[in-house]
Design goal:
By secondary structure, the protein is an alpha+beta fold. 14% of the residues lie in helices and 27% in strands. Strand 11 and strand 12 form a beta hairpin.
């Protein structure tokens, strides 16, 4: 089992957050307004274990993440071609249905992968801060935006918010010029276990859960209850640079 050592950034356990909610502004604010109040701390060395050769030991239900092997090979050039990307997303969608036992897969942003004008980068850059992309409340909001009001669905409906790629978590506002969302920043905890997929191939996806309306399995201990649903605060993730 390959283990790499790296560094990672976490939200500091700062007294500031006892009276002020963490936030990030994704636009240029007025003069005198800070674009963020995040106070980060760097942890190193931090060990990350490869799951190569034991991918089947990890599952969405038990661990909150899994490796999905696509049933079709994707030519590398397709990733720079809009039509090729659409074909790729269709393949991903069908494979996710099988992995999750889902009837329908919906993108959070209907316009993805077309980037809106005004972004600084041609491609989204990976985050180097440990986090979860949405809070349980934000997951409910995302479901409504994409599918409509929850009242239109069976009360037994199960839905999950996943990515293709507790007292340690802090809800954080992420504010854009035209909308606001909420994610979860992470405080460092020595008990956290970190994994990566060594020599990942284009046909291999790391799928990890943000929230689940019907949490089951070992990760259920990390549940967060809100007014409407019992949602699962799930897999932490980040980008890291290996020293090897």
């Amino acid at each position: 089992m390959a283990i790499v050592e790296t560094s990672m950034h976490f939200l500091a356990r700062d007294k500031l957050y006892e009276h002020e909610k963490p936030y990030q502004l994704k636009y240029e604010p007025e003069k005198g307004i800070s674009n963020s109040n995040l106070r980060l701390e760097k942890q190193e060395p931090l060990k990350i274990s490869s799951i190569r050769g034991r991918e089947q030991q990890f599952s969405m239900e038990e661990n909150g993440f899994a490796v999905l092997k696509l049933d079709k090979e994707i030519p590398y050039d397709d990733f720079s071609d809009p039509a090729g990307i659409r074909r790729y997303l269709d393949v991903v969608s069908e494979n996710l249905k099988t992995l999750l036992g889902a009837d329908k897969i919906r993108k959070r942003d209907p316009g993805f992968p077309i980037m809106k004008k005004g972004n600084r980068y041609d491609y989204n850059q990976p985050s180097t801060v440990a986090h979860i992309d949405s809070t349980p409340e934000e997951a409910v909001s995302t479901f409504r935006q994409v599918n409509g009001d929850l009242k239109n669905f069976s009360p037994n409906l199960r839905y999950q918010v996943v990515n293709v790629q507790a007292d340690d978590l802090m809800p954080t506002d992420v504010v854009f010029a035209a909308k606001a969302t909420e994610n979860l920043q992470v405080h460092y905890d020595a008990a956290h276990q970190w994994y990566y997929l060594e020599d990942q191939e284009p046909s291999e996806l790391l799928v990890f859960r943000q929230a689940d309306s019907h949490p089951v399995g070992r990760v259920e201990r990390d549940e967060i209850r809100n007014a409407e649903h019992k949602m699962l605060a799930s897999t932490l993730y980040t980008f890291f640079v290996s020293s090897t």
